[in-house]
Amino acid sequence: MRALQTVTYLGNTVCAKGRSSMNMHNKLPDPDMASAYSLPADTGRATQRRWVKPALVVLLIAVAAFVAWKVFGAKPAEAPPVSSVPEVTIIVPGMSAVAQTITATGSIAARRDSAVGVQGEGGRVITVLAEAGQQVRKGQVLVQIDSAVQTQTSRQLAASLRSAQADAQLAEANLKRAQALVGRGFISKADIDQRTATRDGAVARVGVAAAQLAANEALIGRLSVRAPSDGLILARSVEAGQIVSPGVVLFRLAEGSVLEMRAQVAEQDMAVLKVGMPASVTPVGSTQDYRGRVWLLDPVIDNASRQGIARIALPYSPGLRVGAFAKSQIVAGEAMRPVLPQSAVQADDKGSYVMIVGADNKVERRSVAVGTVSDIGVSIATGLNGTERVVASAAAFLRPGEKINPVVAKTAA
Fold it and tell me: CA neighbours within 13 Å on the CB side: how many for 395?
């Protein structure tokens, strides 16, 4: 067997047959055979150069094509320019007939709130005969104060009165006897005068004793605290066994059981209201309306809040509690006013306002006074005449002086 001989050809290893497979890396023993199987070294390098040049040409063509595509290729279509002026929906409200219902808030109070206390000297309370929320009648005893000492004093004064009356009767009898004897000369004129003075003094002492007794009886009567009028007990601040004195308020009484709501009304609405207008009052947390009428309009407007007080008289009902907060609606007829959607009216620490669009399509702030709020929208009491172009819903996102593209809102068919 011939051994294999390795020959390098174009970078590859070629195995030649030899005598031994284990000596394939050994030198060939026969020079002629070696020359027959080996290739010249210049032939491998030339072959490599032939492959390099086409590769470089292909690479250069690819680079040139990429550059040409970048420079002369199709450019993406540019997006149309976006306008910086926003489109904003506007409305021209005009004038609409709206029910002139004036809404106001306030608290419930007694129309006439009477303080009931001790009129006499006071003392220890024996019995309390009334409770808060109870209807009472004029003269009804509410509290009974201990009057044992005053009762004994009355007995003493009554005895003094009887003694004075007896002295007066005796003096009157002595005077009459003396007058019968004066004509016979037994008694002088001076004795008659003396007896007359004695009789008059005794009669005067009777009057003093009677007056003292009456005063003490009146004092005892005032120890029974009584209701000054018919009404509703609003509050009780006394208990049995308590020591009370003059000036201490024991009860608060709503005279006639009539309550009122003191509604805080805007200054411009006070000019519309009149005494006798019907109103409904709804306490906070309640769904029931209580009917009443305006009975008094306070003549003073508060300088800070620019509000007045409209007093709405309400008959007593268990659902009405003094001190509770409530909302009222006073029916004041109809009026022609601009009506806007609620989204058009904004409010901040300076008050309510809307954004209107001027002739140059720039927005500006306009302060307004809100009137009636109903299902159809918000009526504007002052600030608009109905011809303005009002921003419908984006007023909170616009700044005064900002230019917009106004779009008139479509009205519902």
Answer: 26
Tell how far CA 314 is from the center of its chain.
Answer: 23
Q: How many whole angstroms separate alpha carbon 25 and alpha carbon 251?
A: 131
What CATH code would you report for 147-222? 1.10.287
Q: Which CATH code fits 89-97+337-408?
A: 2.40.420.20
pLDDT band at 83 (very low <50, low <70, confident <90, very high): low
Q: What does the CA dihedral 233, 234, 237, 241 come to, rounded to 10 degrees?
A: 20
User: For the segment 388-409, what is each residue's pLDDT rounded down to a tens digit?
Assistant: 999 998 878 888 888 888 888 8
Q: Rounded to whole angstroms, how far apart are CA atoms 391 and 353?
A: 11
Of 161, 150, 178, 162, which is closest to residue 212 (Cα–Cα)? 161
Instruction: Tell me the β-bridge partners of 89.
Output: 407
DSSP designation for 36:
H
Which of 96-100, 229-233, 372-376 has maximum average pLDDT? Answer: 229-233
Tokens found for residue 296: 């008094």
Query: Which residues lie closer than 8 Å to 355 by C-beta, 6 or more apart?
Result: 346, 363, 364, 365, 366, 390, 391, 395, 398, 400
What tens digit of pLDDT does each residue of 49-68 get? 566 667 777 777 877 777 76
Residues of the chain with CATH 2.40.420.20: 89-97+337-408
Six token digits for residue 368: 């307004």
Give the per-residue pLDDT at 296: 93
Q: Given CA atoms 353, 354, 358, 363 in this order, what sign does their dihedral have?
A: positive
pLDDT for position 282 = 93
β-strand 377-382 against 339-340: which pairing, if any? antiparallel
Largest CA distance in the chain: 216
Beta strands 249-255; 351-357: pairing state = unpaired
CATH 1.10.287 in the chain: give the residue spans: 147-222
Quickly count helices (H) and strands (E) in the chain: 5, 25
